[in-house]
Amino acid sequence: MKGIVFTEFLEMIEDKFGYELVDQLLEESDLPSGGIYTAIGTYDHAEMVTLVSGLSKRMDIPVPDLLRSYGQYMFTSFTRSYRPFVERADSAFALLSSVQHYIHVEVRKLYPDAELPHFTIEQPAENHLRMHYISERKLADFAHGLIEGCLATFGETATITKTNLTDDGSQVLFDIRKE
Ligand code: HEM
């Protein structure tokens, strides 16, 4: 998992709860990296699982809620760090439709070792988008937050219905309808 995923996660905790908590969390997590991340480095996905479950226990917030908030936060950070990808789209649906065949393709060129999900995306109607998420990392709640962050960035509102297609969470369907 790329370092940016960790640096932004720790920044979110600092913004929402203060640096003290980041410090305590890193201390008690006993991570192989020592909790020192650079944006372009690559780290074990297991470290993110440790950090998210540690924060969940400490704050008594369910893991799915944390991942979703983190997705929302992350999209805002993408609008800063990867501005050209966001500016190329003129609507939330245009951006979401381009994740699989443009954005993540460019991300892969920048970071050949990136661990990215697979999306099958279809748009049955102008106000209706379907995103089928597949990933062994089972981060659909994070994807949910990214979709919400994307809609918010473009000042749009939509109803997102999330359906688990497998019990283990590796395949999830997002049905997104604009009012
Ligand atoms: C400007 C927009 C975007 C950029 C620059 C971007 C970039 C990235 C990067 C760098 C990673 C980390 C890869 C790794 O850790 O190895 C990632 C992961 C991920 N991205 Fe994107 N992404 C964008 C938009 C989106 C959107 C809109 C969605 C969802 C609809 C999405 C879904 C995901 C998910 C779920 C992961 C976690 C990995 C997994 O589930 O397997 N991304 N993306």
From TrEMBL:
MF annotations from Gene Ontology: heme binding
Family matches, as SUPFAM superfamilies: Ligand-binding domain in the NO signalling and Golgi transport
Record InterPro entries:
H-NOX_domain_sf, Heme_NO-bd, NO_sig/Golgi_transp_ligand-bd
Residue stretches in coiled coil? none
A Pfam family assignment: HNOB
Per UniProt, residues of the Heme NO-binding domain are 2-161
Q: Which domain of life is it from?
A: Bacteria
Q: What is this protein called?
A: Heme NO-binding domain-containing protein
Which organism is the protein's source?
Answer: Spirosoma pollinicola
Q: What is the lineage of its organism?
A: Bacteria, Pseudomonadati, Bacteroidota, Cytophagia, Cytophagales
